[in-house]
Amino acid sequence: MVSSPDIPDVLCRHQEVMQLVSLLGHPGESVPQSIFLTGHKSSGKSYTLMKVLDSLNIRYASVNCVEGYMPRLLFESILSQIVGETVPPSARCENIMEFILQLKIIADNHDLHESVIAVVLEGSDRLRDMNPNLLPALMRLQELSCLKKVCVILLSDVLWDKFAPSGGLPPPIQIYFPQYSQNDILKILSLDKPKDYPADFHSNYLQLFVAVFLRSCRDITELRYKAAENFSKYCEPIERGEIDINDSGKLWKHISPHLKASLQMIYMRFETGKKIATEVDSGTSMDKHSTLSSSAKYALSFELPYYAKYLIIAAFLASYNSPKEDKKLFVKLSGRNKKKVLKKNAQTKISSLVMGPRQFDLERLLAIFYSIIEEKPHISVNLLTQITSLVELQLLQKAGSDPLEAPKYKCAVGFDFIIIIAKTLSFNVTKYLVDYK
Amino acid sequence: MSRTPKSSKPSDKGQALKPSDVCVIRKILKDQILMPSANPFRGSPKEFADVLSLFRRAMEHGESNSALLIGPRGCGKTTLVECVIEALQRDCLAFDDSVIVRLNGYVHMDDRLALKGIATQLQLENTLGDKVFGSFAENLSFLLQCLKEGDREHTKSVIFILEEFDLFCHHQNQTLLYNLFDVAQSAQAPICVLGITCRKDVTDLLEKRVMSRFSNRQIHLYPHATETFEDGVKNRIQLCKDLLSIRSDNKKHPQLSVRALQLWNTHLEGLFVNPIVVDCLKDMYAYTVCERSLRNFLLLVICRLCDDHLEVTPTDFSEVSRQMRRNLRVAFAEGLSILELCLLISMMHQNEIFDSAPFNFEMVFARLLKFDQHSSKTMTVDRQVVVKAFEHLKSLEFIRPVSTSSQVLKEFQMFNLMLITDEIREAVNNYQGLPTEVSQWAFSDYT
Ligand SMILES: Nc1ncnc2c1ncn2[C@@H]1O[C@H](COP(=O)(O)OP(=O)(O)OP(=O)(O)O)[C@@H](O)[C@H]1O
Ligand SMILES: Nc1ncnc2c1ncn2[C@@H]1O[C@H](COP(=O)(O)OP(=O)(O)OP(=O)(O)O)[C@@H](O)[C@H]1O
Ligand SMILES: [Mg+2]
Ligand SMILES: [Mg+2]
C-alpha cells in the first residue's frame, strides 16, 4: 500500500506545495527532467521548496549560481551535498563531463538509482552568463547521466521566456509563485510577533506599517526587516511609560515620521540608515531632517570641502550646458543680457537634463569654476588633487582612456545632488542652467 | 484547486476505482509519459529503417559509414536512435560484439574531452592514461587498434553517436570530426558515425577537408511537415489516449486488477470525446507542436490524481491548460508594487509619445513626477526609492539596456521596454487595490 506523503505547512503557499508534492512526493514514481520555479524576489520559492524537500526526505543539493561563478565550484558543491560529505580531491570536476561521471559513480556507490535526487539551482538566470553549454546540459541531466531519478529544479525571478532565446532548452514544468496579497503579507509578517506583546497590538501596528510601505515595496524579506526595526521604535514610548499601550492615536503620531523616514531608506541597509535613525530620535533635529529626502542625505554624507563643492557644481554646469552658452552665462557683465538668454532657451523643450551629461575638458571646467566662485582660491590650493579625489569618489567620471589626449570628464551626479550642495553654499545654480525651466 | 466533488464518482460502489488502484495507475502513467524506455518510436518508418540498416551493416559486416540525422528539436531523434539500438539488441547476433559510443556536444565541449569520453566508453581509459601520444589522430587510432587486439580475428565495430553534432563543428580544426570521418571513409577500422542535430544547414559548418570525407548521407526527420492541422490534432488526441491508457497485455503491473484497468480505459474513452478536452488539446496544438510540452501537460493532469480525486476530469484539462498558457509577464506585473507599476506606465507613455525610442531613468522619472504633481494624493516619489524600483524592473528584465557600455552613467543608460501596452494595461486592470487615478492614467491617451 502506498502511503501518502507528508505535506509541510507553508503559509499562503498551499497550492504550490501540493503541486511540488504531486511531482516529487511519491517514491517509486518517475520524476520530470526539470522544474522551473518562478516568482518575484522573496515570494517564498526557496523557502517553500526546502520545506517540501525536507519533509519528503528527498536527497538534494542546493547551490546558488550567483556564488558559483566557476562551474567547478558549482559541480563540487552539488556532489558533496548529495553525498553528505566533501568530495575527495580525486573527484575533481572541471567540466560537465567529469561532473556527470562522478554523479554516476556516487549513484552506484550509494545505491541511489531508485531514489530521487534533486539538484536545486538558485538564481538560475545567472547560468545564462556562464558557459553556453552549461544550462542546456544541466536541463538534460536526466538524459545525459541516465539517472532516471535526477530532477533539476531551477529557481529564478526572471521569466522562462528570457531563458529560451539561448535555444535548445527542453521546456521544464513551470510552477509560478504569485506575489503575496496584502492579507498574505500581514499573515506572514505576524509570524514575527515578539513574545511580550499581545497579538492584536502587533497586528494593529502591522496595519499601519503596511499602509505606509506597501505602495513602494512588496518584498517580504525587506518588509520583515523594516517591520521589526520599526516595531521596536513603536514600542519605545510604551516601555518608557510615556504612551499607554491602548492609545493608538498617540502611537500613530509617534511612529508615522519614523515610518516615512524608514521608507526612504528602503533596500539600503548601510550605515547612514542607522545614522539618520538616531537623528530622527534626537527630537530637535527631527523636524528638519525628516523632511530631508534620502538623496539629500546621500549628498551631504560626502562632506565635501569648500572648493570641491564648487568644482562639482562647475562640472555639472559644464556637463549640462552647451559650450556655446558659456560666454553669455559666465561673463559677469550685464544681468540684462543673461535674462534674455535664459528666456529664449526656456522654450526649447527637450531638456539636456534628461539626456545625460556631455564631456568637457579640464580647461573649461576651471574656467567655469573661476567664474562662479566668489573669492579667488589661494594659489596654493591644488585644484587638480581635488578633481582626482572627486573622480575617486565617483562624483566625476573620467571619460576616454587615451593617455596622450587631454583627459575629459563628465559629471556623475544628478541635479538634486547639485541643488543640495549649492544650497549649502547659498549658491543659485538654476540661474546658470540654460535648460532649467 | 477545485477537486471534483464526490458526487461525480460513479454511483455504483463496485464500479469505482479505489484509491490504491489510482496510486498504481498514476505511477504507470507517469512512467509512460516520462520514461524513455517505456516509449516506442512512432511514425517515420523509412527513417527508422535507414538508421537501423546503417547500424546493422556496421555491426554485422563491419561496414564503415557515416550519416547525419537532422530534425527539429524534440521531434524524436534521440528516441529513434535509442529504439533502433533496442531493436538491434533484440535481434542482431553481432550486437554484443559491437560498442556504442555516445558523445554529446554539450558535454564533450572540446576534442580533448571527446577523446577522454571515447576512452572511457571503450573502457580503455587506463590504457590511454599510461601513454603519451602526439597527435589526436594517433590517439584515436590507438584506441581503435586496442579493440582489434581481442582474441577474435574480427574486430569490434564501433558506433559513434554524436548528439548536438553542430557543436562539434566549432571545435578547433574539427579534429575529431576529421579523424572519425577519415577512419570511416578509408575503412581503417569498422566504425559508423551518426551525427544528430537540429540544424538543417549543418553541412555548411563542415570544413572542406572534413566534408570531403563525410559520406553525405542525410536522414531528415520532419514528422509534422506534411500533415494538415486536422490530421495533426487527430494524431495528437490519439497520442494522448495512448499515453494515458494502460495496455491490457501489460504484465508488469500485478498490483492492478483487470477490472480496475478496464474501468480506467473506459473512463478514458469518454474523456477524449469530451469537447472541453478536445478543445484544450486543439488549442495547445495550434500553439505548439512540441511533444515535450504535451507530455508536461499530461504529467500535470495526471499529478492531480490523488486519494480524493480518483478520476481525470475535463476540468483538470482546462485548469492545467490555463496554468500553462497563462501570460506570466502580466502576472509578474501584477505582483509589482504600485510605485513600480507607475514606473511601467510612465515607460509605456514614453514609448507612445516617442514612438518606442529608447529611454533612460531621467525621462521616465520626469514623467512620473509630472503625474504625481497632478494627482491629488501625493505618493512617495523619493528619488532613491524610484531608482530602486527602476533597478528592480531591470533585474526582472522588463527593461533591457540598449548597450552595455559602462561609460554611461546609470541614470542615463538607455533602455527598451520589453512589455507591450496591452500587457501593462491588463496588469493594471487586474491589480487589486490600485488607486483609480493610476488606472485612469494608464488608460489615458497621450498621442
Ligand atoms: N509563506 C511564507 N511563510 C513564512 N515565511 C515566508 C513565506 N514566504 C517567504 N517567507 C520568508 O521570506 C524569506 C524570503 O523567501 P525566499 O528566500 O523563499 O524567497 P525567494 O522566492 O527564494 O526569493 P529570491 O528570488 O530572492 O531567492 C524567507 O526566508 C522566509 O523566511
Ligand atoms: N516519433 C516519436 N516517437 C516517440 N516519441 C517521440 C517521438 N517524437 C517525439 N517523441 C517524444 O518527445 C520527446 C522528445 O524526443 P527526443 O528526446 O527524442 O527528441 P530529440 O529530437 O532528440 O530532441 P533534441 O533535438 O532536443 O535532442 C520525448 O519524450 C519523446 O518520447
Ligand atoms: Mg531564493
Ligand atoms: Mg535528443
UniProtKB/TrEMBL annotation, chain A:
Gene3D superfamilies linked: P-loop containing nucleotide triphosphate hydrolases
Subcellular location: Nucleus
GO biological process assignments: DNA replication initiation
Annotated ranges, domain Orc1-like AAA ATPase: 10-153
Classification via InterPro entries: AAA_16 (IPR041664), ORC5 (IPR020796), ORC5_C (IPR047088), ORC5_lid (IPR048866), P-loop_NTPase (IPR027417)
Domain Origin recognition complex subunit 5 C-terminal: 304-433
Pfam families: AAA_16, ORC5_C, ORC5_lid
Molecular function GO labels: DNA replication origin binding
Nucleus as UniProt keyword: yes
Keyword annotations from UniProtKB, A to Z: ATP-binding, DNA replication, Nucleotide-binding, Nucleus
Domain of life: Eukaryota
GO CC, one annotated term: nuclear origin of replication recognition complex
Domain ORC5 lid: start-end pairs: 203-261
Protein family per UniProt: Belongs to the ORC5 family.
Protein name: Origin recognition complex subunit 5
Phylogenetic placement of the source organism: Eukaryota, Metazoa, Ecdysozoa, Arthropoda, Hexapoda
Gene: LOC113203145
UniProtKB/TrEMBL annotation, chain B:
GO MF annotations in UniProt: ATP binding; ATP hydrolysis activity; DNA replication origin binding
Keyword Protease attributed: no
Stretches assigned to the AAA+ ATPase domain: 63-224
SMART domains membership: AAA
A GO BP entry: DNA replication initiation
Localization annotation: Nucleus
This protein's UniProt keywords: ATP-binding, DNA replication, DNA-binding, Nucleotide-binding, Nucleus
Gene3D superfamilies: P-loop containing nucleotide triphosphate hydrolases
GO cellular component: cytoplasm; nuclear origin of replication recognition complex
Nucleotide-binding as UniProt keyword: yes
Major localization class: nucleus
Family: Belongs to the ORC4 family.
Function: Component of the origin recognition complex (ORC) that binds origins of replication.
Subunit description: Component of ORC, a complex composed of at least 6 subunits: ORC1, ORC2, ORC3, ORC4, ORC5 and ORC6. ORC is regulated in a cell-cycle dependent manner. It is sequentially assembled at the exit from anaphase of mitosis and disassembled as cells enter S phase. Interacts with DBF4. Interacts with POLQ.
Protein name per Swiss-Prot or TrEMBL: Origin recognition complex subunit 4
Upper taxonomic lineage: Eukaryota, Metazoa, Ecdysozoa, Arthropoda, Hexapoda
Name of encoding gene: LOC113205893
